[in-house]
Design a protein that fits this description.
This protein is an alpha/beta fold and about 240 residues long. It has a single domain (about 5-230), classed as Alpha-Beta Barrel (TIM Barrel), CATH 3.20.20. It is about 30% helix and about 15% strand. Strands 1-2-3-4-5-6-7-8 form an eight-stranded parallel β-barrel, surrounded by five helices. The chain is globular and about 45 Å long.
Amino acid sequence: MQPVSGVVLLTDRRAVRGDLCDAVAQAVAGGVRCVVLREKDLPRAERLVLAAELRPILAEAGGTLIVAGPDPLLPETEPAPRIPSTFGGAFVALHLPAAGPYPPPVADLVGRSCHDEAELDRLTTEDYVTLSPVFPTRSKPGYGPPLGPDGLAALASRSPVPVLALGGIETPAQVRACVRAGATGVAVQGAIMRARNPHQVATTLTTAHHELLQTSSPQTPHRTGAAHGGTSQSPAPTIPAKR
């Protein structure tokens, strides 16, 4: 499996200008290799159809579909996976809310939404977290004041696992600010979902991320996990799968 990295897309069918799957395909063509399927208000049967349509789009590009869980949205007769899995069936990747469940369900890859130190301190076996909101956001305006790069840096230094910055990220400058603050990547929703040209926006943001990594010194220490006794890491934007 390709690890979660770079620009991660969160779906929002209500914001997209056309077909959701087409917008996701455009984003993947623009360099996105990880997509979180949200749409949690839909009935399970409809989310299951969406997951079945999106998984091949990611698989063809060597990417990963993560389901906003805890339900992984797998049909009863899941075909054999293209990549090795600890499940003997399908590769299971979940993204969980801060509220639970605790401990996380067993899965190949587990992420969780976090917003403050208390939520970070509750982590157990998760592989990565999103920290939000970093910048003012139209998608979720009620989640408190923005962290800003300094607040992101403070929480990233406390996190025991790699961090994705989330919330109001729309420009290359914001991508660079988040990575410099200690994030290994960024999670984006509205900037791509609302775009007239999702491919162009995805390309712009993923290029900014890639170019920053190319110019970063591999000896530069990464702060993520330091507060929990972790070793220093390079700023490479990888979130490892569960070992």
